[in-house]
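May I ask for whichever protein you like with its backbone structure tokens?
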Amino acid sequence: MPAMSRPHFWRHPLCLAPRALHPWLTEAGSLTARLKKSFPALRVRVLRQGWQRPVRDELCELRLQRPEAFAAVREVLLLDGDVPLVFAHSATPRQALRGGFHLLERTGSRPLGALLFADPTITRSPLAWCRVDRRHPLWRRAKLAAGPLPPRLWARRSVFFSGRDRLLVTEVFLPATNPKTV
């Protein structure tokens, strides 16, 4: 499996994250499945799904050469009832929708992890972590979706591989998963 190149931004040491957040940040299996154990009323709200330009720090991970390139992007909120827990952002190049990640377009309000972890041919890169703040586009999108947020939040990301196709998944942990994220 190719290594994730991890721009310097995504190399924050995990030890800097609040200890209570470590189990969420390091979950190797489906984050959604783990969240369901702690939050039985967990549901997925699809915020957007379609073509858009990836965030700049995603270009390398997706092997997109041009900043003006478009990717298939899906953004969701994972909620406990009406309480936002995680803002999730997934991006994949156009050709992956004709290949290994063709089911992405038909995911609807189902958790993406249910598809990814059900297919034994899909592999995953190691996780990378960082603290995002209002300068990062995903913090700003999470704020639009979830409302007021602390100035800094912890996020993790990894690349899923299906053959040569890539799907980058980033999860931003909102205050309800750990009130001490500020």
In short: Residues 7 and 57 are 7 Å apart (CA to CA). The first helix runs from residue 22 to 26. Confidence is low (pLDDT under 50) at residues 1-6. The domain at 8-177 is CATH 3.40.1410.10 (Chorismate lyase).
